[in-house]
TrEMBL record:
Belongs to the acyl-CoA oxidase family. SUPFAM superfamilies: Acyl-CoA dehydrogenase C-terminal domain-like, Acyl-CoA dehydrogenase NM domain-like. The keyword Oxidoreductase applies. This is Acyl-coenzyme A oxidase. It comes from Branchiostoma floridae (Florida lancelet).
Amino acid sequence: MVAKMNPDLKKERENASFDPEKITNFLYGGQESVKRKRELESLALNDPDYQHEDLNFMSREQQYETQLKKGILMVTKMKELKITSAQDQLFYTSAVLVSDVHPMSVHTRMFLPTLYGQATEQQKDKWLKLAENYTIIGTYAQTEIGHGTFVRGLETTATYDPKTQEFILNTPTLSASKWWPGGMGKTSNYVVLMAQLYIYGKSYGIHPFMLQIRSLEDHKPLPGVTVGDIGPKFGYDVMDNGFLSLNNVRIPRENMLMKYSRVEPDGTYVRPPSTKLAYGTMVQVRAGIVMFSGMNLAKAVTIATRYSCVRRQSEMKPGHPEPQVLDYVTQQYKLFPYLAAAYAFWLTGQTMMSVYTTSSSQISKGDISVLPELHALSAGLKALSSSMANVGMEECRLACGGHGYSHASGLPRLYTNATPASTAEGEHVVLMLQTARYLMKSYNQSLQGEKLAGSVAYLSGVQLVPAAGRTRNMLDLGALCDAFRHRAARIVGEAAAQLRSEMQGGKDQADAWNASSVDLTKAAMAHSQYFVVKTFAERLTDSRLDSSISAVLTRLCQLHALHGLVTNSGDFLEDGYLTGSDIRQARRHINALMAKLRPDAVALVDAFDFPDGILNSILGRYDGNVYQHLLEWAKASPLNKTDVHQSYHKYLKPFLEANRAKL
Ligand SMILES: CCCCCCCCCCCCCCCCCC(=O)SCCNC(=O)CCNC(=O)[C@H](O)C(C)(C)COP(=O)(O)OP(=O)(O)OC[C@H]1O[C@@H](n2cnc3c(N)ncnc32)[C@H](O)[C@@H]1OP(=O)(O)O
Ligand SMILES: Cc1cc2nc3c(=O)[nH]c(=O)nc-3n(C[C@H](O)[C@H](O)[C@H](O)COP(=O)(O)OP(=O)(O)OC[C@H]3O[C@@H](n4cnc5c(N)ncnc54)[C@H](O)[C@@H]3O)c2cc1C
């Protein structure tokens, strides 16, 4: 029997100004792609082999086991079903895994990409097939208990022994123990080990090495290897993040991944074109995190928006029926800016991935000139998108009131699994400072008359003329992009001036950098925000965009820009570029835009096209039948298996009886 749709949600859908399918096609790159996505999703969601008890009702060990089984089934079935393209795999795996990962995820996301990116053809012949086949399962072992951010400071050593043509691997101190790699605790039998290369006592910096850590016969740690799980975390329960220490473990010379740098049998070191090529896998994942953050935010906003149309609370007018909570303008102000941000990061994520693809093909042809721009852009956007998603997902949870706190909402699990994206693959501030470093360099080049290209082109010959008194239409996307560009250029210029003045005041470069670092991160943030606003606006100029959806997408883009402008209003006012009256106008526009977006809110989240199985949220159900399913879900809790829990007999009964006896 098909369940009836909640009448409020039904009405929302009937009243929308556009057909959400058109936006779905825009977001996923066309009708064919959407069709394929739905086929793959339904294949996964209807497969009885993937059904299991709710992970929220399981212990961590059970969760690990369940997701491992599921991950193994998933990779086996993808092979059988010939699901091979990256896009198809993403559609299928998203439906199998929902908002979780599986213990071999780092194998797919980092171990394999490191082999593709860092191994020679000969090494690929040796390992790729084994890794693609899951004959060997690997992870990316870089972070140590004492150092994660400071990659150059890692302590694990790979010392070349020319006599045997082997590397001797050691974690010489407690702080050198590898710590965090996903899937290392219990699952992997191989790692890519990032270690300091030593030849004849001389250090050559961080390099990747293939290391077998467990027996392929009985999975026991190999001699010299101590390995295990690091214990429960804030989330990511299904993942066995691990520790690893090494004591004089020998590997053959051929196990150093030598696409870019080499050690010859006699110990001669051949330098790479850039030492930063060894960081390539991190750059790839950072680029992917922009889209990942947009999607997670989209999921959270879908849940909170649908629920806000089903939920009725309080009286807006005395004696009137309780309104849908989404009719409260404060609720719209909680959700709509993140709805707009989800679209912004979704589209920017696509642009970031295409920049990544183009740049990496140039790099593989030997042109490394694109590396600095790629690194700076992916670092800043990764940091901005993940932090925005964190704040947005939490706001969505709060917007769902008490039910948002229940695992039934899907929001706690979504949040705790997605929030590492702010820390892992480079901590937020650290990455912003990397972008700032590129901005300072580019800005100084522009002062010397050099013409800049790419994301920093706007720093060339920028005219920081205060434009107060000018009448502006604060809804004009061109004017909004100009405002963000001006703000970014000004803050970059001021951070550069601050840095200079610290140095002129007697500080050396490092101290001056540290003293200016709050302004520098602000510059990187302003630069990244400008890039997102500009990208969103540019995507709307696509001539293939149907006019019925370009109106509503333009409203979202305006809201995204205006909300960023109002929440950072000081930045725009500080040099008089905008006036108090502009900001007041912006605030009024936000209210008007929210009122216009209100009837389209459900259609806008429907357009993300997350089936219920992927949202995994009772509050976000497509049919809106929330209360009935909340009750059913609660009844399934293991604590409700019996009316009287065994602990009553063990603890509560004697306690009550003892108290009664004292009366
Ligand atoms: C495909 C789809 C994917 C989908 C993705 C979905 C993902 C889901 C994610 C969910 C989250 C869960 C995570 C699970 C996996 C986590 C794995 C990890 O964390 S693994 C562990 C992750 N760990 C981390 O992320 C560690 C973070 N730390 C680091 O990356 C580095 O230590 C550093 C970058 C901070 C500094 O590096 P250092 O060597 O000290 O460099 P200096 O500062 O001295 O600067 C010198 C020069 O180098 C330049 N440059 C630097 N980097 C690059 C680059 N990559 N390139 C080019 N250039 C670069 C720099 O600009 C400067 O240039 P210049 O000014 O001289 O011209
Ligand atoms: C869920 C999860 C999965 C992970 N998976 C893996 C994996 O598979 N493989 C792997 O190798 N690693 C993995 N990591 C480790 C991760 O990459 C690191 O934790 C991350 O890079 C941050 O480094 P850190 O822990 O050393 O933080 P720290 O650098 O110690 O950060 C602590 C504080 O110091 C500040 N700080 C540090 N350096 C600077 C600086 N230069 N300037 C200003 N402030 C600074 C930071 O801003 C932060 O506030 C994972 C981590 C998590 C949480």
